[in-house]
Amino acid sequence: MGKYLNVGNDGFASVIKGIYIDKTEMISYINSTLGTLDKLTCVSRPRRFGKSISAKMLCAYYDKSCDSHALFSHLEIAKDPSYEKYLNKFNVIYLDITLFISKAANIQQVVTDINNSVVYEVQQAYPEVIQDKTLADMLFNVTSTTGEKFIVIIDEWDALFREAKDKLSLQKDYIDFLRSLFKSSWTDTIFEAVYMTGILPIKRYGNQSAVSDFREYTMLNPKKLAKYTGFTESEVKTLCSQYDMDFEEMKRWYDGYSFNRIKSVYSPNSVMEAVKSEEFGSYWTRTETYESLKIYIDMDIDGLREAVIQMLGGEDVPVDVGVFQNDMLNIKQKDDVLTLLVHLGYLAYNSVKETVYIPNEEVKKEFIRSVATSKHKEI
Questions:
Q1: Domain map (residue ranges) of the chain
Q2: Residue 298 has pLDDT above 80, yes or no
Q3: What is the pTM of this model?
Q4: CATH fold of 10-217
Protein backbone atom coordinates (compact mmCIF):
# COMPACT_ATOMS: atom_id res chain seq x y z
CA MET A 1 0.00 0.00 0.00
CA GLY A 2 1.41 3.38 -0.99
CA LYS A 3 0.79 7.00 -0.13
CA TYR A 4 -0.31 7.89 -3.65
CA LEU A 5 -0.10 4.70 -5.74
CA ASN A 6 -2.63 2.03 -4.78
CA VAL A 7 -3.61 3.49 -1.40
CA GLY A 8 -6.04 0.68 -0.56
CA ASN A 9 -9.64 0.76 0.65
CA ASP A 10 -9.34 1.94 4.27
CA GLY A 11 -10.87 5.34 3.47
CA PHE A 12 -14.11 3.91 2.09
CA ALA A 13 -14.22 1.21 4.76
CA SER A 14 -14.37 3.98 7.38
CA VAL A 15 -17.15 5.75 5.49
CA ILE A 16 -19.55 2.80 5.34
CA LYS A 17 -19.08 1.94 9.02
CA GLY A 18 -21.24 4.96 9.86
CA ILE A 19 -24.60 6.09 8.49
CA TYR A 20 -24.15 5.67 4.75
CA ILE A 21 -26.38 6.60 1.82
CA ASP A 22 -25.54 4.20 -1.00
CA LYS A 23 -24.18 6.16 -3.96
CA THR A 24 -22.15 3.28 -5.42
CA GLU A 25 -24.36 3.12 -8.51
CA MET A 26 -22.22 6.00 -9.78
CA ILE A 27 -19.41 3.49 -10.29
CA SER A 28 -21.40 1.89 -13.12
CA TYR A 29 -21.28 5.19 -15.00
CA ILE A 30 -17.51 5.52 -14.53
CA ASN A 31 -17.16 1.89 -15.66
CA SER A 32 -19.01 2.79 -18.87
CA THR A 33 -16.38 5.46 -19.64
CA LEU A 34 -13.28 3.30 -19.11
CA GLY A 35 -10.99 3.43 -22.12
CA THR A 36 -13.41 5.63 -24.11
CA LEU A 37 -13.26 9.23 -25.26
CA ASP A 38 -15.36 10.07 -22.16
CA LYS A 39 -12.84 8.68 -19.69
CA LEU A 40 -11.82 12.11 -18.31
CA THR A 41 -14.40 13.21 -15.70
CA CYS A 42 -14.42 16.38 -13.59
CA VAL A 43 -17.08 16.77 -10.89
CA SER A 44 -17.34 20.13 -9.12
CA ARG A 45 -19.45 20.60 -5.99
CA PRO A 46 -19.35 22.78 -2.86
CA ARG A 47 -17.79 21.68 0.39
CA ARG A 48 -20.07 19.37 2.39
CA PHE A 49 -21.35 17.65 -0.77
CA GLY A 50 -19.47 14.34 -0.54
CA LYS A 51 -16.66 14.84 -3.07
CA SER A 52 -14.01 13.09 -0.98
CA ILE A 53 -16.35 10.20 -0.13
CA SER A 54 -16.88 9.56 -3.85
CA ALA A 55 -13.12 9.69 -4.47
CA LYS A 56 -12.48 7.18 -1.66
CA MET A 57 -15.24 4.95 -3.03
CA LEU A 58 -13.63 4.86 -6.48
CA CYS A 59 -10.20 4.16 -4.98
CA ALA A 60 -11.58 1.21 -3.02
CA TYR A 61 -13.35 -0.19 -6.06
CA TYR A 62 -10.58 0.03 -8.67
CA ASP A 63 -7.39 -0.42 -6.60
CA LYS A 64 -5.77 -3.75 -7.50
CA SER A 65 -3.68 -3.85 -4.31
CA CYS A 66 -6.69 -4.78 -2.13
CA ASP A 67 -9.78 -6.99 -2.11
CA SER A 68 -12.94 -4.90 -1.73
CA HIS A 69 -15.59 -7.58 -2.23
CA ALA A 70 -16.67 -7.37 1.42
CA LEU A 71 -17.16 -3.61 1.15
CA PHE A 72 -19.28 -3.58 -2.00
CA SER A 73 -21.10 -6.94 -2.06
CA HIS A 74 -24.20 -5.55 -0.25
CA LEU A 75 -24.27 -2.22 -2.11
CA GLU A 76 -26.01 -1.19 -5.35
CA ILE A 77 -22.97 -1.55 -7.60
CA ALA A 78 -22.83 -5.28 -6.88
CA LYS A 79 -26.02 -5.67 -8.98
CA ASP A 80 -24.40 -4.10 -12.03
CA PRO A 81 -23.12 -6.39 -14.84
CA SER A 82 -19.77 -4.57 -14.83
CA TYR A 83 -19.18 -5.09 -11.08
CA GLU A 84 -16.83 -8.09 -11.15
CA LYS A 85 -15.21 -7.11 -14.44
CA TYR A 86 -13.48 -4.04 -13.03
CA LEU A 87 -13.40 -4.61 -9.26
CA ASN A 88 -9.79 -4.24 -7.98
CA LYS A 89 -8.29 -4.49 -11.46
CA PHE A 90 -6.22 -1.30 -11.87
CA ASN A 91 -3.27 0.70 -10.64
CA VAL A 92 -4.84 3.75 -8.98
CA ILE A 93 -3.04 7.04 -8.33
CA TYR A 94 -4.85 9.09 -5.66
CA LEU A 95 -3.89 12.73 -5.18
CA ASP A 96 -5.38 14.98 -2.49
CA ILE A 97 -4.16 18.41 -3.59
CA THR A 98 -5.03 20.04 -0.25
CA LEU A 99 -2.70 17.54 1.46
CA PHE A 100 0.21 18.56 -0.77
CA ILE A 101 -0.50 22.24 -0.05
CA SER A 102 -0.59 21.65 3.71
CA LYS A 103 2.69 19.72 3.63
CA ALA A 104 4.60 22.11 1.38
CA ALA A 105 7.38 24.14 2.98
CA ASN A 106 6.94 26.55 0.09
CA ILE A 107 3.67 26.60 -1.84
CA GLN A 108 5.59 27.45 -5.02
CA GLN A 109 7.03 23.91 -4.88
CA VAL A 110 3.68 22.09 -4.73
CA VAL A 111 3.66 21.02 -8.37
CA THR A 112 7.23 19.74 -8.11
CA ASP A 113 6.33 17.92 -4.89
CA ILE A 114 3.37 16.19 -6.57
CA ASN A 115 5.47 15.08 -9.53
CA ASN A 116 8.42 13.86 -7.47
CA SER A 117 6.35 12.06 -4.83
CA VAL A 118 4.34 10.03 -7.33
CA VAL A 119 7.30 9.35 -9.61
CA TYR A 120 9.23 7.94 -6.63
CA GLU A 121 6.43 5.51 -5.74
CA VAL A 122 6.00 4.38 -9.34
CA GLN A 123 9.77 3.82 -9.61
CA GLN A 124 9.70 1.72 -6.42
CA ALA A 125 6.80 -0.34 -7.72
CA TYR A 126 8.41 -0.89 -11.16
CA PRO A 127 12.19 -1.04 -10.71
CA GLU A 128 12.54 -3.02 -13.94
CA VAL A 129 11.12 -0.18 -16.05
CA ILE A 130 13.27 2.58 -17.52
CA GLN A 131 13.33 5.31 -14.89
CA ASP A 132 12.33 8.89 -15.66
CA LYS A 133 11.92 12.12 -13.71
CA THR A 134 8.61 13.42 -15.04
CA LEU A 135 5.36 11.67 -14.15
CA ALA A 136 4.03 11.53 -17.70
CA ASP A 137 7.25 9.92 -18.96
CA MET A 138 7.41 7.48 -16.04
CA LEU A 139 3.82 6.32 -16.50
CA PHE A 140 4.32 5.96 -20.25
CA ASN A 141 7.37 3.77 -19.62
CA VAL A 142 5.36 1.54 -17.25
CA THR A 143 2.45 1.16 -19.64
CA SER A 144 4.59 0.55 -22.72
CA THR A 145 6.65 -2.06 -20.84
CA THR A 146 3.96 -3.89 -18.86
CA GLY A 147 0.73 -3.08 -20.69
CA GLU A 148 -0.80 -1.89 -17.41
CA LYS A 149 -2.87 1.30 -17.55
CA PHE A 150 -3.64 3.69 -14.69
CA ILE A 151 -6.71 5.26 -13.16
CA VAL A 152 -6.04 8.69 -11.62
CA ILE A 153 -8.28 10.18 -8.92
CA ILE A 154 -7.60 13.81 -7.95
CA ASP A 155 -9.48 15.23 -4.99
CA GLU A 156 -9.81 19.05 -4.71
CA TRP A 157 -8.08 19.51 -8.06
CA ASP A 158 -8.70 23.30 -7.93
CA ALA A 159 -7.26 23.89 -4.43
CA LEU A 160 -4.26 25.80 -5.82
CA PHE A 161 -6.57 28.22 -7.63
CA ARG A 162 -8.36 28.87 -4.34
CA GLU A 163 -5.43 28.86 -1.91
CA ALA A 164 -2.96 30.65 -4.19
CA LYS A 165 -5.30 32.70 -6.33
CA ASP A 166 -2.75 35.49 -6.86
CA LYS A 167 0.20 33.20 -7.74
CA LEU A 168 -0.26 33.08 -11.48
CA SER A 169 3.10 31.44 -12.27
CA LEU A 170 2.27 28.57 -9.89
CA GLN A 171 -1.14 28.15 -11.50
CA LYS A 172 0.49 28.01 -14.93
CA ASP A 173 2.93 25.35 -13.73
CA TYR A 174 0.03 23.32 -12.38
CA ILE A 175 -2.02 23.60 -15.58
CA ASP A 176 1.05 22.62 -17.63
CA PHE A 177 1.50 19.59 -15.35
CA LEU A 178 -2.13 18.54 -15.89
CA ARG A 179 -1.83 19.09 -19.62
CA SER A 180 1.27 16.90 -19.79
CA LEU A 181 -0.82 14.08 -18.34
CA PHE A 182 -4.31 14.58 -19.72
CA LYS A 183 -3.97 16.54 -22.95
CA SER A 184 -1.19 14.80 -24.80
CA SER A 185 -0.76 12.06 -27.38
CA TRP A 186 0.06 9.72 -24.47
CA THR A 187 -3.18 10.21 -22.54
CA ASP A 188 -5.04 7.35 -24.26
CA THR A 189 -2.02 5.09 -23.89
CA ILE A 190 -1.51 5.66 -20.16
CA PHE A 191 -4.95 6.15 -18.62
CA GLU A 192 -8.02 3.98 -18.39
CA ALA A 193 -9.88 6.78 -16.60
CA VAL A 194 -9.36 10.04 -14.71
CA TYR A 195 -11.75 11.37 -12.06
CA MET A 196 -11.23 14.86 -10.62
CA THR A 197 -13.25 16.63 -7.95
CA GLY A 198 -13.21 20.30 -7.05
CA ILE A 199 -15.32 23.23 -5.98
CA LEU A 200 -14.77 25.21 -9.18
CA PRO A 201 -15.14 23.94 -12.74
CA ILE A 202 -12.00 23.78 -14.84
CA LYS A 203 -10.36 27.17 -15.29
CA ARG A 204 -11.27 29.04 -18.46
CA TYR A 205 -9.04 31.32 -20.49
CA GLY A 206 -11.38 33.35 -22.68
CA ASN A 207 -13.62 30.78 -24.33
CA GLN A 208 -11.19 27.89 -23.85
CA SER A 209 -10.87 25.42 -20.99
CA ALA A 210 -7.39 24.85 -19.57
CA VAL A 211 -7.81 21.06 -19.87
CA SER A 212 -10.47 20.87 -22.53
CA ASP A 213 -11.01 17.11 -22.94
CA PHE A 214 -12.70 16.60 -19.56
CA ARG A 215 -16.44 15.97 -19.31
CA GLU A 216 -17.62 18.39 -16.62
CA TYR A 217 -20.47 17.94 -14.13
CA THR A 218 -21.11 21.11 -12.13
CA MET A 219 -23.62 22.77 -9.79
CA LEU A 220 -24.92 24.60 -12.86
CA ASN A 221 -25.45 21.37 -14.80
CA PRO A 222 -24.54 18.02 -13.21
CA LYS A 223 -26.20 16.18 -16.12
CA LYS A 224 -26.54 12.43 -15.58
CA LEU A 225 -24.65 12.63 -12.26
CA ALA A 226 -27.33 14.88 -10.71
CA LYS A 227 -28.61 12.24 -8.29
CA TYR A 228 -25.09 11.78 -6.90
CA THR A 229 -24.61 15.53 -6.28
CA GLY A 230 -26.41 15.46 -2.92
CA PHE A 231 -29.17 13.50 -1.19
CA THR A 232 -32.40 12.98 -3.10
CA GLU A 233 -35.81 13.45 -1.51
CA SER A 234 -36.47 9.70 -1.32
CA GLU A 235 -33.12 9.14 0.40
CA VAL A 236 -33.88 11.85 2.96
CA LYS A 237 -37.38 10.47 3.59
CA THR A 238 -35.86 7.07 4.31
CA LEU A 239 -33.37 8.60 6.75
CA CYS A 240 -36.10 10.55 8.52
CA SER A 241 -38.19 7.40 8.86
CA GLN A 242 -35.26 5.35 10.19
CA TYR A 243 -34.15 7.95 12.72
CA ASP A 244 -37.53 9.46 13.65
CA MET A 245 -36.79 12.93 12.24
CA ASP A 246 -39.38 15.43 11.03
CA PHE A 247 -39.17 15.30 7.23
CA GLU A 248 -40.81 18.72 6.66
CA GLU A 249 -38.27 20.39 8.95
CA MET A 250 -35.45 18.56 7.19
CA LYS A 251 -36.77 19.86 3.88
CA ARG A 252 -37.08 23.45 5.15
CA TRP A 253 -33.53 23.47 6.50
CA TYR A 254 -31.50 21.59 3.90
CA ASP A 255 -33.40 21.20 0.59
CA GLY A 256 -33.54 23.72 -2.24
CA TYR A 257 -30.94 22.68 -4.82
CA SER A 258 -32.61 21.69 -8.09
CA PHE A 259 -31.46 20.33 -11.44
CA ASN A 260 -33.18 19.32 -14.67
CA ARG A 261 -33.04 15.61 -13.82
CA ILE A 262 -33.51 15.84 -10.04
CA LYS A 263 -35.83 18.57 -8.77
CA SER A 264 -35.06 18.27 -5.05
CA VAL A 265 -31.48 17.88 -3.77
CA TYR A 266 -30.43 18.22 -0.13
CA SER A 267 -27.12 19.32 1.38
CA PRO A 268 -25.76 15.89 2.42
CA ASN A 269 -23.38 16.86 5.21
CA SER A 270 -26.02 18.97 6.94
CA VAL A 271 -28.62 16.21 6.73
CA MET A 272 -26.17 13.72 8.23
CA GLU A 273 -25.22 16.11 11.02
CA ALA A 274 -28.89 16.70 11.85
CA VAL A 275 -29.52 12.95 11.99
CA LYS A 276 -26.48 12.29 14.15
CA SER A 277 -27.23 15.10 16.60
CA GLU A 278 -31.01 14.57 16.43
CA GLU A 279 -31.38 18.33 16.07
CA PHE A 280 -32.06 20.75 13.24
CA GLY A 281 -29.81 23.76 12.89
CA SER A 282 -27.01 25.34 10.88
CA TYR A 283 -24.05 23.01 10.36
CA TRP A 284 -22.60 25.14 7.57
CA THR A 285 -20.17 26.96 9.87
CA ARG A 286 -18.34 23.74 10.69
CA THR A 287 -16.84 23.75 7.20
CA GLU A 288 -17.24 27.43 6.22
CA THR A 289 -17.48 30.71 8.07
CA TYR A 290 -19.80 33.52 7.16
CA GLU A 291 -16.69 35.64 6.52
CA SER A 292 -16.10 33.78 3.25
CA LEU A 293 -19.55 34.84 2.08
CA LYS A 294 -19.15 38.36 3.48
CA ILE A 295 -16.12 38.97 1.23
CA TYR A 296 -18.34 38.73 -1.84
CA ILE A 297 -21.36 40.52 -0.39
CA ASP A 298 -19.11 43.47 0.48
CA MET A 299 -17.86 43.86 -3.08
CA ASP A 300 -18.72 47.27 -4.51
CA ILE A 301 -20.27 45.97 -7.72
CA ASP A 302 -23.28 47.57 -9.38
CA GLY A 303 -26.47 45.64 -8.78
CA LEU A 304 -25.08 43.24 -6.16
CA ARG A 305 -26.67 45.01 -3.19
CA GLU A 306 -30.10 44.97 -4.84
CA ALA A 307 -29.69 41.29 -5.78
CA VAL A 308 -28.92 40.32 -2.17
CA ILE A 309 -31.97 42.28 -0.95
CA GLN A 310 -34.22 40.52 -3.46
CA MET A 311 -32.95 37.05 -2.54
CA LEU A 312 -33.28 37.70 1.20
CA GLY A 313 -36.89 38.57 0.41
CA GLY A 314 -37.39 35.16 -1.19
CA GLU A 315 -37.12 36.22 -4.82
CA ASP A 316 -35.08 34.80 -7.70
CA VAL A 317 -32.47 36.99 -9.41
CA PRO A 318 -31.55 36.76 -13.13
CA VAL A 319 -27.95 35.77 -13.84
CA ASP A 320 -25.68 35.16 -16.83
CA VAL A 321 -23.47 32.26 -15.71
CA GLY A 322 -21.54 32.24 -18.99
CA VAL A 323 -19.32 35.21 -18.09
CA PHE A 324 -17.65 33.53 -15.10
CA GLN A 325 -14.04 32.46 -15.74
CA ASN A 326 -14.07 29.70 -13.07
CA ASP A 327 -11.63 31.34 -10.70
CA MET A 328 -11.73 33.62 -7.66
CA LEU A 329 -9.48 36.33 -9.10
CA ASN A 330 -11.40 37.60 -12.13
CA ILE A 331 -14.48 38.82 -10.27
CA LYS A 332 -15.52 41.89 -12.25
CA GLN A 333 -19.30 42.06 -12.24
CA LYS A 334 -22.39 41.03 -10.30
CA ASP A 335 -22.95 37.85 -12.35
CA ASP A 336 -19.40 36.66 -11.56
CA VAL A 337 -20.20 36.88 -7.84
CA LEU A 338 -23.58 35.18 -8.15
CA THR A 339 -22.18 32.34 -10.28
CA LEU A 340 -19.29 31.81 -7.87
CA LEU A 341 -21.76 31.61 -4.98
CA VAL A 342 -23.62 28.85 -6.85
CA HIS A 343 -20.40 26.82 -7.06
CA LEU A 344 -19.73 27.50 -3.37
CA GLY A 345 -23.22 26.28 -2.46
CA TYR A 346 -24.52 29.59 -1.11
CA LEU A 347 -26.96 29.95 -4.00
CA ALA A 348 -28.93 27.52 -6.13
CA TYR A 349 -29.39 27.86 -9.89
CA ASN A 350 -32.56 27.46 -11.92
CA SER A 351 -31.34 26.57 -15.41
CA VAL A 352 -34.79 26.99 -16.98
CA LYS A 353 -35.36 30.52 -15.67
CA GLU A 354 -31.61 31.33 -15.61
CA THR A 355 -31.96 32.71 -12.09
CA VAL A 356 -30.34 32.18 -8.69
CA TYR A 357 -31.89 32.05 -5.24
CA ILE A 358 -31.10 31.23 -1.61
CA PRO A 359 -31.91 27.52 -1.34
CA ASN A 360 -32.92 26.90 2.27
CA GLU A 361 -33.09 28.05 5.89
CA GLU A 362 -29.54 27.00 6.73
CA VAL A 363 -27.96 29.05 3.96
CA LYS A 364 -30.32 31.97 4.57
CA LYS A 365 -28.97 32.19 8.12
CA GLU A 366 -25.44 32.44 6.70
CA PHE A 367 -26.54 35.33 4.50
CA ILE A 368 -28.13 37.06 7.48
CA ARG A 369 -24.95 36.68 9.55
CA SER A 370 -22.92 38.08 6.67
CA VAL A 371 -25.06 41.10 5.88
CA ALA A 372 -25.42 41.96 9.58
CA THR A 373 -21.75 42.95 9.55
CA SER A 374 -21.42 43.99 5.90
CA LYS A 375 -20.53 47.47 4.75
CA HIS A 376 -23.92 47.74 3.08
CA LYS A 377 -25.76 48.75 6.24
CA GLU A 378 -28.96 49.45 4.34
CA ILE A 379 -29.40 45.74 3.58
A1: 10-217, 231-374
A2: no
A3: 0.92
A4: Rossmann fold (3.40.50)
